[in-house]
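Dissemination and training. As part of the outreach component of the grant, students in the summer workshop were shown how a complex can be specified as a set of sequence lines and then modelled as a single object. The example used during the hands-on session is reproduced here so that future cohorts can follow it. Participants entered these lines:
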Amino acid sequence: MRAALRRAADTDLAYGDPFGSRELRTRLAPFLARTRGTVVDTETLSIHAGSTQALGTIARTLLEHGAKTLAVEDPSHRWRTATLEASGLELVPVAADSDGLCVEALPDVDAVIVSPAHSFPLGAALSPVRRRALVEWAVSGDRMIVEHDYDGHFRYDRAPTAALQALAPSNVAYIGTVSPLLAPTIRIGWTIAPSRFSETIGGVTMRTTFAQPRLDQLALAEFIARGYLDRGLRRARAAYKRRRDLVARTLPTTGAAAGLFVHVPLPQATDEDRVLREARAAGIALDGVRANAIGFVDPGVVVGFAASPEPTLERALAALSPLIRGA
Amino acid sequence: MRAALRRAADTDLAYGDPFGSRELRTRLAPFLARTRGTVVDTETLSIHAGSTQALGTIARTLLEHGAKTLAVEDPSHRWRTATLEASGLELVPVAADSDGLCVEALPDVDAVIVSPAHSFPLGAALSPVRRRALVEWAVSGDRMIVEHDYDGHFRYDRAPTAALQALAPSNVAYIGTVSPLLAPTIRIGWTIAPSRFSETIGGVTMRTTFAQPRLDQLALAEFIARGYLDRGLRRARAAYKRRRDLVARTLPTTGAAAGLFVHVPLPQATDEDRVLREARAAGIALDGVRANAIGFVDPGVVVGFAASPEPTLERALAALSPLIRGA
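and obtained this result:
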């Protein structure tokens, strides 16, 4: 931040570009191409105040370009659903399972939102067959895919699967965020969208928030330029892998190959709410699968491990394990 | 920022409260009470990403509480109009003149947005008679006033008029911003709203942007605690007064008693666009009155002086003066 401020001009204190600082976009575009395999340049990349604002902006942009219906993975994050619902698009739930979104079940909608690298709350990676089918569905039908890549930098047992966006850049609006890479409170997210949407994205941003805070962006640009973000990512991946291993050794997890949480399925008859309440009483904040579903789905809990150091995690797992096995 | 980061806990890096950091609200509430006369505590104060986001959040909050129609000063800032229009409220333009909003012309609407300290683009302060009438209109009819106090800290020839909010805290949602106090790119704004709206404001914020960046908020809290914001305000007021005086000596201004711009009326037959174009050709960015109007209004230009040091301002005024007099 000091280095960024030293270099900043007086004009850097004004509102600035609704697409975000050019310095940051210039540094971030090659980072994303390198680490997520995206097809991106400074013109198709926009900065937003975290991925929630990016989601709302993309949803409103699609709406202004004539889209009316958006398929969403069910279950998927209830806050994502709430943000998308507020945009005015009509949401159409489509089942998601341990291979990700059930692409074969997609109805005739204008767009779909999906997290191919690691779905929430099931933690699924979209299977190769479904990836191909999804791209085919979008390209052949002139439809849009919103790729919500909120923790795709974290894959533990092999190199991360590249973003879907690279397969069909004209049919994908890609959304990412600095939250899992650095810290959620930084509130920097980004979109990569086909250039035909750029003007609308800028207009929606100006009406929503006018512009993003530039000093944080300049600091992040400097952080990337110095190689700190790459280094931080390598370190975080190693640390999170140790935490993930600890959870996966103790609990019967699925969705543990990537991301910052695992899914623990519960027997069908389990009262998910009761498990969440009991965990809360033991001082453990969990999320639930049914708590994030629109339709009827099997119960389960979501165990996030990224924010807890190993000793904390060990204590939590010792308390949680009998609760889960008891269910 | 260094001091704020030194004190920050690990948990300060998580998403945090949609109402903004408690540290900042605890420091900002007495600052606003002292400098703008608002009735405010940490529970009625919320932090937003600048006043544009605050405007959208308040508009959507009113809508969720049953409001359908919002009267807007005509002329008023076109970007404000665009933000409010995007919220889903139906906007009803009401004339504004050199005494501010024509309160006597208010139709039967659910709410009104007004900048009583210094309207844009006319630079008017709402007259005492109209202030009283507006409060009476709101209280007697159970209606809401949105007080958009974007530059009310700057009054040059006497102490600032206190915010209208103090006269009817239950019927006013107050909006302010750090932009004129520090710098626009910081993107911190605030609302003071009756507590019956709090839950909705939190919900709208979570769906729009989830939470605001906390490190900037902690830094601003520290900045206020050290007395820097009060000191900066005194300095800025003195500097801006010199710049304002310079403009007012050179051009036939109105609306120069407060704020960071003056209004220069043009003769009725003037082609405002041509004046703006000619100024732009001379390297001077002006805004226009008609450019910010919904209905038919007299032409005029808006000369912002806050961001230009005096030598720059002198050169600009030397180029601008013949253009204005020529019109």
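Residues 228-250 of chain A form the longest helix (23 residues). Students were then asked to discuss how this feature might be tested experimentally.
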